[in-house]
Amino acid sequence: MTKTIQQHFYTAIYIALFSVLLGFGLKVYLATVIDKESLALYYTAIDVFSFSLLVLIGFRSSMVVSYNKIKEAGGIVNIFRYFLLVAMLASWGFVIPYIKHQIGVEVDYWYLVATIFSMSLYMYLSNQLAMYRLYKVMQRSSFIEPILSIVWFLIAFYVAEVKGIQALFIMSIMASFTLSIYIYILKSKKSKEPVIKRVIIDSEMRQFIKKSLISTLEFSSGMMLIYMAVFFFSHYYSVTELGDFQVVTKPILIYMITLFVFPVFRFLLPELSKLFYEKKKDEIAELKSWFYRFSFLVSTAFVVIFYFLGESLIALVFPAEYKDAYLYLSHLSFFFIFIMLNAYQVAFIKSSGAFTQALYIRLSGLAFFVVFFYLTRYFSESSIAVVFGLAMAYLGMFLFSWVIEKRVYKQL
């Protein structure tokens, strides 16, 4: 592995760390000024909206690949717009009523409509940043995103004196809109917005749509694990236990994934693809060896911190009502190593062009989660069953991808 790739990887972690610290600090602060039930319902609503828009995230990698191949953005962006419109209409017709009447989020409809629109706009522009490879704009937007959330919450809560869950939705809506405007201004200096027009579906566009759908399924299947955990908590357990997971456990897990897993697909996957087609087995082995050492170091630190010090740290940072979240984190910490190693394995498998196999790995994780959750719940009513099912899903995916990785490596 070259030093350049290592530097890109470490730089991405440093940038993400700043955003993570600010975002986590905001969550800690919100836990002191917003009641636990409102916070749990707000984060659950945002999770449901995010899940309904996963199709937009799934398009990102296929947009990058297709644009680099055909060097023409018009057809790609217009097809993406069609899928974006369908996703928004589906959210307005089905997701908003579910959040309003089933989850029980007591806010006016315009809050929910504005939330889905602002989130869609941000994803639309951020996907274009990836397609045009505007890395500096991507880094700047990641840097200011948590800052905008803090600013807009302070304006809503202290200046406009909006309280409770309404202030949280105003924060989310205005932060997304402001960030979208910022991205659009910077993006416009590098590339013009493609004209809206009818797209001719030729072989290239059909391949783009196919890759996008497979990528969407693969990405959404991976992310669905966490949303399934939210569903199981909200469906089988109390709002208190849901709050422990939503406010403490899930954010910390997401932060760890953001810091140490997402850079794998941003930097290591392209390098692996280049090395794979050049048949450079030694350099692939070197890259794998470095990342495995790095993964063991990070995972060991995670276990030490949250198994031995987690209870004290949570009590220090969060109000006393969130102390039980320590049990969830102490269990998950032992399995984070499999999340990191599985990320490398999937990146290597996708680098060879085996996207379908990557999808099978993600789908197996969902099956492992459901089986082990209900099996554990059969013997115990404890909410730890959710966390154990999630942990076994990560272990199962690691073992499955380990087998497929060996088959792919033999092609070299």
From TrEMBL:
Chief location category: membrane
Transmembrane segment boundaries: 12-34, 40-59, 79-99, 111-130, 142-159, 165-185, 213-232, 252-269, 290-310, 325-347, 359-376, 382-404
InterPro entries, alphabetized: Poly_Biosynth_Transport
Subcellular location field: Cell membrane
Keyword Transmembrane helix: yes
Membrane topology: Multi-pass membrane protein
UniProt keyword terms in alphabetical order: Cell membrane, Membrane, Transmembrane, Transmembrane helix
Gene Ontology cellular-component annotations: plasma membrane
Name recorded for this polypeptide: Polysaccharide biosynthesis protein
